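Allow me, if you will, to draw on your knowledge of protein folds for a short while. The matter concerns a single protein, recorded as an amino acid sequence and a row of backbone structure tokens. Could you please explain, in whatever detail you think fit, how the structure tokens follow from the sequence? I remain grateful for any guidance, and I place the record below:

…
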Amino acid sequence: VRSRGLGDVYKRQVMLIGLILLLISSVVLFAGGQKELSEAQHKAGSEARDWAAEVSNALKGRYGDMHEKIVKDGNRNSPEYQEFQKTLAMYVDKFKVTYIYTLIKVSDEMTNLIVDAADEEYADEYGAEYEMEDQMVSAFGGTPDYAKDIWKDDDFGWQISAFAPLYNSQGKIVAIIGIDRPVSSK
């Protein structure tokens, strides 16, 4: 049986301490990158969530069925799309928000934009891809929710996003309504 010298034990202790310090610094760096929303940002997110739920409630049924037809058509060249977009634009004006749009789930990781109330200059393309986020998962599950972070729009500044489910006349969630609204960066 070979006995370990004190040098081997010392080397292992130094390696273990080094690993622990590396782990701690990684956790500190990761946590430092995660910024908590301020009270004002939470309030803005809650309002946007409530507005998305209000739009969802107003559009459930007929507009949910209309949305399914828009998806089936696969473009923005229908009277249904025009009516849906015009209706969402009314809510943009009502709530004084930056964007209102719909997303469909294409996978657990991805969504596609379908109806965008923005003027053509600012509207994203039909079918534009967006990564699935926690608040979207909640909305696709039936619970309105808002993002726990903010993002910067090149044209309109800092925004917070919120989502609510859109139901068809059979009570099935066919899309989610998204609202982006201005928010302070502090």
The beta strands are 99-105, 110-116, 129-131, 145-146, 151-153, 157-167, 173-182. Confidence is low (pLDDT under 50) at residues 27-34. The longest helix spans residues 6-33. The helical segments are 6-33, 39-59, 62-73, 79-95, 134-140.
